[in-house]
Write a structure and sequence with these properties.
The chain is of the alpha/beta class and about 325 residues long. The protein is built from 12 helices and 10 strands. Strand 1, helix 3 and strand 2 form a beta-alpha-beta unit. The longest helix is centred in the C-terminal third of the chain and has 21 residues.
Length: about 325
Amino acid sequence: MSTRRDVLKTLALTSSAAAIPALWSGAAFAQAPGALQIFVPAAPGGGWDSTARTIEMAMKTDNLAKDFKFEHAPGAGGAVGLPKFLSTKKGAADALMVGGMVMVGSLIANKSPVSMKDLTPIARLTGEANVLVVPAASPIKNIKEWVEAFKKEPGKMSVAGGSAGGTDHILMGMIGRAVGVEPKAVSYVAFAGGGPATAAILGSQVACGTSGVGEFVEHVKSGKMRALAVSGGARVAGVDAPTLKEAGIDVELVNWRGVFGAPGVTPEQQAALVGLVEKMAKGPTWQAELKKKDWTDVYLGGPAFGKYLDAEITRITGILKDLGLAT
């Protein structure tokens, strides 16, 4: 078993940056815990909770961990739960917190005194593109017509989505900036959940809406909503709509979810958790669940995930400044 000194010595002698991810993903430097505390900074039943429960099922099925203890701390897109996790789990080598892009925006918008940089990065796991939709009765038939209407009178193109500063709001700010509309001019209507937003769109109370593909796909398939475009880098099976980039809008956004370790863990403990999660992510059960749930595999582990997170925080801060939600 390598010591911490061995790890630091190896890193110091490694001149190639490409060697660092390989070092962390290749093996764990300490034994991975057989029991895990899973912290979910949201209410049961949502996307983060679904991710956490799928992690539990996959690890149990593939004999990677046996015992799991769950804790939920909902509120403000993770801005309530994160401080609790940071203060109560410090140094806990068996603790994992589920989070994602929504939390990045929420912490910035809520001017949180803590940051996701205070966490120990373990792995980015899944990604889901957003879809831009209009109700079936809308006169807008495609993304080109939507852009024309949006540019002409952005105030009248009301958009239903999730919480202010969340993924949906960020996407609309990016689209506005890309097509020449001041992001602050976007008429964004924030809803507490997917259900109320869906009802507003189906009832034509708003001109359009956006959310994860999984939230609206059944309504698109039934003909109650019309999909105009998806926000990811590729088209989505079962959704007859181009990507934003295909439509000439230079925007690409995927709502990612991942797991984080507690602050204060050692490099060896971080590596053990990275190794454990990587085994799960590449295992048969998790891969089957990705297909079943239409989740995109965007696995990125350890320090490489940490660098990605830093870049996301910088990017999203800039967008939220454009929207008037950050200083």
